[in-house]
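User: Is it possible to get a 3D structure for a protein together with its bound compound? The compound here is copper (II) ion. I've pasted both below.
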Amino acid sequence: MTSYVRALPLILIAIAGLSACEPAKTPPAPMLVVAQIDGVEISEPRMRLPPNGRDVTAAYLTMTNSSDKPQKLVGANSPKADRIELHAHLKGADGMAQMRQVDQVEIPAKGTAVLAPGGLHLMVFGIKDAMKPGDSFPVELTFEGNRKVGFSLPVVENPTQKTEGDKGHGSHQH
Ligand SMILES: [Cu+2]
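Assistant: Yes, that's possible. Here is the predicted structure of the complex:
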């Protein structure tokens, strides 16, 4: 009897594994949290491979605030880049997407701020070393109150190479 009881949890796990294979019931993949600071969890970090020969690119991540007060991301830096700016992607009066620097990104209390293609992003300037997909790029975020947290951005392929990405970057002076 004892061995039968011990086997039960394994069977339950197996059943749960099976149901996860049905597309309609697949829960969202759990987000891998790479760093946290004062109730803010950072997940889904990635940096696009700089377009050929360039030393500028965009990086993205998700910040989830489980605290009951808003938090503000106010800056970022890396020992491997000249500087990192916080950028927003906006539609200009002419309907063209344009990027502009912002002072801060607020993460609402019990809320989430998503830095993703077409929206908020980290703009990395003056990348010092050549990179390839799979590399990791060190970054440090600064939150209001000079609170800092460091982690690595995995480098991923750049899908907008020679297309949207370059148009967007054309509005910058470099
Ligand atoms: Cu930008």
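Residues 61 and 128 are 21 Å apart (CA to CA). Residues 58, 87, 99, 121, 123 surround copper (II) ion (CB under 6 Å).
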